[in-house]
Structure formats: C-alpha cells, structure tokens
Amino acid sequence: MSLLGGIRPPIAALSALLLALAALTALGLGNPQREPLPKAVLTSQQHFAEDGAIALRASLDESITDLNRTAALFNAGDPVSADTVLDKLGSVYQKWRGSAVVEIKSGKLLAARGENVPLLAIDRDKLADADGLAPRMVRLKNGETRLLTFALLSWEGQPQQLLITSNSLKFPGVSIGKFRVIAVVDSGGQILSSDGIPAPEKIPSDTVEEEVRQTKKQLRSFARRSAEKAEQNPIKSKEPGSGGFLGVSGTMTGKRISGERPIAGYASLAAPEAGESTDATSLGLSVVSLVTVPENTSRVNSPLFGLLSAAALLVIGALAVTLLLGTVQRPLIRLFLESRRLTRGDLTRPVTVPRFGETRRIGQALDRLRRQLLGETPEATADDAPAGASGSASGSGKAPRRRRGRRVGTRALLATGGILLLVWSAPMMLLLNRAGDSVVVPQQIVNDQRERTDTLADRVRRALNEGHADIVSVATLIGDKTEPDAMTTVLERTMREHPRYESMYVLSPEGEVLAQAGETPKHPAGQKPGEAPVALLDTDDTKPRIAGYAELPGRDGAAVVGEFRVDFLNSLLKRPGLGQVRIVDAERRVLGSNTGYLAFEKLPSKRLDSFVAGTNQQVGLSAKPSSVLYRSGGGIQIAAAAPFAGGGAAKTLGWTVVSWQPASGLAIPEYSAQNRTVLAGLLGVTAAAGCLGWLHIIVVRPLRDLAKQAETLAGGDRRTVLYPRHHDEVGAIARSLELLRQQLLEQRKRDGAPSALAGRN
Question: Which of 377, 287, 197 is nearest to 751 (CA)?
C-alpha cells in the first residue's frame, strides 16, 4: 500500500485534525480573556513613538540639508558679508535657535544671531577630518542639549568661513494631547529633551506633584530600557514579515501610578529607506512616549463557550468519522478481502455485498463473476443478485432474486460527512461569539487616532512650508542679475537635493517660462504668477497640481515656481494603525491619500463629510483636531480630522487631514475572541475540505471508474484489461478483477469456446 494512498490515511488525518481543533477551541475560546491592557492600546503607543521618531528625523535631516544647500548657493555667487548670510538665512528659515559665522583660520567670530552658539565646543583643527563637519550634540552648562550643524562658506581670494547653527532637540509639531509625555533619548539612555511634564509652577497640589515625580522616575526607567533595546538589529526586533517602521520600536509597561498603568512606546531614528543612513540617524537618538491608561479587569468571554464548542465538535466529528468508517472504509476493505478470496479459487460462498455506493456495484459484479467461474453465463447472472449482507446461500452457489438496492453513491456519503462538519463550522464563522455594536473601545485609542492625525496634518503642512521656504531661498539668491542658464543650474541643483518637487521654473510677469528644470510646467500659459504662496493650480486635472510661488527681487513680478509631487505628499500619509487617510481641501475634495483614490472626489460617506465640516468650525482662535466613535448596524468606526494649524505659507490653503478605520481591525479583546471563533470555523472547514477532498481524489473517483469496469467485465467484456491507478485498496481490487478476467479467459479456452482475444487476429 502507498504511504499516503488508500482509504485509511484521509480518515485518520481527519480524526487527528478534529481532535486537535477541539483542543485548540477549548484552550483558545475557553480561556477567560482578562486583558487589563488591550494589545491595541499597546500597539497604538508604539505607532505614536514611531510617528515622533519619523518627524524628528525628517526635521533634523531637513535642517541639515537646508543649511548645506544655502551655503552652496552663497558659494556659487559673489562674496557677501557674514551679516548678509545670517540675515538672508534668518529671513527664509526660522528654525534655528542660534547661528554664527566664524573665520576658520583665526577663529574670529564674524557675525551671530539668536542665542549664543557654544563655539568653545568646536575643534577647528579637526574640521578637515572625514566627519569634521558632521552634526554633533553639545550639552550646555544648564543641562540642556544643543545640536550643532555646520557648512562651509568659500569664496576665491577670501579666508574660508564656517557657518554654524544650533537648535534644541524638540519635536516639530508632534501633538501629544493632555496626558502624554514624550522625550528624546540618546544612546546612553539620557533624556535630552521632553514635553508634556508640567512645570513646577503649574502643579496645583501635593498629590499631583507626587504623580509628576513618579512619572519622571518612570520616564527615566523607560529611557534606559529603550536605549538598550535600540542597540539590537531592527530586523531581529520585529516579527518576521511585520514590515512597517524600519527602525527599532516596541512597547513597555511600568508600575501603577495612582491606579493607572504607565505604557511607553519607543522608536529609534531610522532612515526612510532600508539599509540607508542619514545625518540624523547617525546621532543614535530614540523617542520615548509615555501615557498612563486605566486597566480593564472585566472578563470578555466565559470558558463555558469554548468547552461547549469543543464538546460539540467532538460529537459531530465522531458522527462524521463513524459515517465514513461504516459506509466507506469498512465496505471497501471487506470488498478487497472478498476479491482476494475469489482470486484464490474460493467460489463456494457468495460475495458479501455492501449496502451503499460504488462498493455495492462492485460487490454485485464480483458475485456475478464468481457465478460465471462456476459455469453460469453472463446473461444468466444479469438478473440475479447475491444475498445481501447476510451472506446466506445454498451450497450450489445460487442466490435468490435480486433486491433493488439503495442507490446512494459514495460521493453522497462524503457530502453527508462534510455537511455534518459544516453544521459546526458555519455557525462558528457566521453566528456565534459576535462582538456586536456594544464593544468597549478604549478611549485612549480614540485619543491616539486624533493626536496621530493631528501630527500627520502638521507633517504635511510643514512639508509644504519647507518647500515654499526652499523656493524663497532660491528666489532670494537668484536676484535680478542671474542669467537663464545660471537659473537652470540653480533649479536643477535644488531638485536633486529635494525630491518633493515635480518641476521648478522661473516665470516672467507675463507668464513666460524663463528657465525650468524637471517636467513640463503646468502653470496656465500666459497667466502671471499667483499671489498666494502655495496654491492649487487646477481642479479639473486627473491629479492635483500644487505649486509654491516666490517673487524674484528686482524683476517686477517675476517668480520662482515649484510644483510639488503629489506622490511625495501621499508618502507622508503612509502610517500603520491609522486606517484610511485623506487630505481634503476647503470644499472637502480629496487631494491626497495613503491608498488609491480619484482626484477631487468626495469623501466616501456623508457622515465623514459632516464630521470634517464640523471640525473646521473655529473654536477660539482656530479650528481644533477632533475624533469621534461611530456606532451603527455596520459596526464601529473611529474617525479623526485635523485642520492645518500653525503658521507658514500652507496655512492659507485651509486643508484638512482626515483618517478613519473600523474598530474590528484593532486588537480589542471582544474582536480578538470573535476572530478566534471565526478562525476555528475556518479551520474546521479547511480540515473537512482537505481530508474529504483527498478521499474523493484518491479513493472515490478511482472507485467510480472501477465500478463501471467491474460491471462491464461481469457483463461479458473479456477484452478490456484492468489497470490499478494506485497501490491501495481500490488498486488491489482492480488487480483481483484483472486476475478474474484472465481466469474466465482460461475457462473459455478449456471449454472450447473461441477466445475473445483470438477474435482480433
């Protein structure tokens, strides 16, 4: 017999799988789910820390790139004074706390703006080293940390100068809400900066002061632990195939503070592309986000459900397996033994004919062949049948007249077994243990949806502001004397350094393109440059066209125009754990998305449209981000919207970032129990389909063909040779039928009848 062939392996495999599934059902659904902190809350904190790490890394790299590009543009022109450099730098970018220009050879301070730059921390003799101009962190006497960035100013015939900027390691536009603390941590676990801890003068009572003290202590503990975890390989720190954030990230929990459990998410600064590094990632920084969450001690489901489900599966599975054993396996094995008996010459006892299916037809054919070997003709045996399951017959081998047997095929028996298993699996998949609309969604998840959406809106707004600042910088340095060829050189250099642009060009006051780089300009021909710093060019195109304008000084209305790549804005929206994310304009038309979309289409539901419209209503000085939890017959949905807030050129656009996701996709205990129930039903269907399909292919189909061949042989066909398909019970019966065919041929030769095979010659 073949190892995987025959009737026994599929039924044995089905029995083993059903027993294993019953055990898994009892353990998985019968285990009371007491999750004081749902996994969805922990995952949300991890994503929050990742958002902070991405925002901090992008801000630091952007600052370093802007400084180097500005210095390169100054170096390409005529020499200017140090004061002019700092004045133009400060007028375009308002991102550094302090800036200075130093003559490298003498160390003389030529100009300074803002707070004092710690010049004593700079070793001018090492600036020529390979990493001499790399950004570095410096701790001030007051305990604060500053990040110093450098660029060279070089003009022919003048001493080389060093342009220095300093900035604090604060998060750019990360919305932390009211009860969250977020910190920047170095590779040694030292906290470099933090937000969210109230100042001493804002602490109202001794109780709050004690909570703040414990929070600071817990934050320091989390900072040390996150620094240790950040040293591991990012690939090994995640589950295989999880993807997402390219750095090291995760969650930690601490001891209770005032009855609530502190949770921390941590994430190291990582490059936007796998396997790469940036100036910011080389600093070895990590982000830690801490929030306290009330624990939930209620039990989601009773162990009785899992135990009853497992018991029901055992009963139904036993019925299905018993059906297969009694109506498929045992009759086939008995038929195999009967066929072997006939081939050995034991013809006195009639064949015990099974009651159902193809085995019954083969049993009847075998008995007819037995009688033909005893001397009867095929025509004489056609109207007679063996004596059923009783096996009684006269000594001469004659059988009574045939009874009309049950015409139930083996396929119908398999289908009956499958239906029995489906009786258990279908309710598990579709009906039982449903979460419903009364699921308790932790408020922290709703708050995180709002804060993360607000952070995302700020990232998009800052990206547009940074892009406009680059355009202003280019316009300032081009001036009124630059030739078109030189303009093109400057535009091409800017596009190489900043991938956010699709094209950059210079427009005359009449709308004529004087110089360009990148793709063909989409600005309407013959129109003068727009007055808004950032504007939407056309609402009838197949994709949004967003452009930034900066007037050229001394050219009577000429402007530098930079058209932003929509894919660049869409890439900012691709954050896990937020669901569907859209950028909509003031009329709530979609301009960008983290998934596929049609430009300028409406939001997918009136409910979301009304929610965004309500969020944009001014409250106080400006509109505020908001979140909501919708409950309806279709399930529970979490939505959040955040209008553009803060200053900059992009604020006038009036855009909003909106996100939504179904709560059923979150790791909430009720949904987890529902998913496990559905999984159990799917496993039951898979086990039944796999094993019964295996049985049908290996046994039933060959058995049906063999039944036709056996009836043909019993009807007098001695010419067709029977070949076994598999080395199993069906194949063994086929071999026995072939031996009986050969015996019948030999019998005809002995009796003097012409051979059927000889008739061919």
Answer: 377
Closest by CA position to 266, among listed 355, 185, 379: 185
The DSSP secondary-structure symbol of 285 reads -
Answer for the pair 357, 410: CB distance below 8 angstroms, yes or no: yes
Q: What is the token pair recorded at 324?
A: 């297969």
Query: One-letter amino acid identity for 729?
Result: E
Question: What's residue 318's pLDDT?
Answer: 94
- Helix (H), strand (E), coil (C) string for 539-567: CCCCCCCEEEEEECCCCCCCEEEEEECHH
Residues 6+ apart with CB under 8 A from 657: 453, 456, 457, 460, 573, 581, 582, 583, 584, 641, 642
C-alpha separations of 289 from 213, 265, 267, 284 in Å: 17, 5, 9, 17
148-166 residue pLDDT tens: 999 999 998 889 999 999 9
E strand intervals along 566-700: 580-584, 590-593, 626-632, 635-643, 656-662
Those residues whose C-beta lies under 8 Å from the C-beta of residue 143, and which sit 6 or more positions away, are none
183 bridge partner residues: 194, 288
Distance CA 58, CA 273 (A): 12
Q: Sign of torsion, CA 257 259 261 262? A: negative
The span from the CA of 180 to the CA of 194, in Å, is 11
CB 662 within 8 A of CB 579: yes
Token pair in block for residue 592: 């960008």
Q: What is the dihedral of CA 431, 433, 435, 436, to 10 degrees?
A: 50
Residue 7 structure tokens: 């009737």
- Rounded to 5 degrees, φ, ψ at 463 are -60, -40
Residue 754 has pLDDT above 70, yes or no: no
Amino acid at 319: L
For 459-515, the pLDDT digits (tens) are 999 889 988 988 988 888 777 777 888 888 888 888 887 788 999 999 888 888 888
What's the pLDDT tens digit per position in 236-275? 776 655 567 888 999 999 888 777 889 999 999 988 887 7
Average pLDDT score over residue span 295-315: 80
DSSP per-residue letters across 361-378: HHHHHHHHHHHHHTT--H
Q: Which helix (H) or strand (E) holds 754?
A: none
- Inform me whether the pLDDT recorded for 757 exceeds 60: no
Which two three-digit tokens encode residue 236?
């090994």
Quote the tokens at residue 747: 């019998």
Distance of CA 321 to the CA centre of its chain: 39
Q: Which residues of 596-629 are buried (b: 16+ CB within 10 A; e: fewer)?
A: ebebbeebeeeebeebbeebbeeeeeebbbbbbe
CA separation for the pair 563, 196 (Å, rounded)? 37
Residues 723-761 as b or e (16 or more Cβ within 10 Å = b): ebebebbbbbbbbbbbbbbebbbeebeeeeeeeeeeeee
Return the C-alpha torsion angle 269, 275, 280, 285, nearest 10.
Answer: 30
Predicted TM-score (pTM) of the model is 0.79
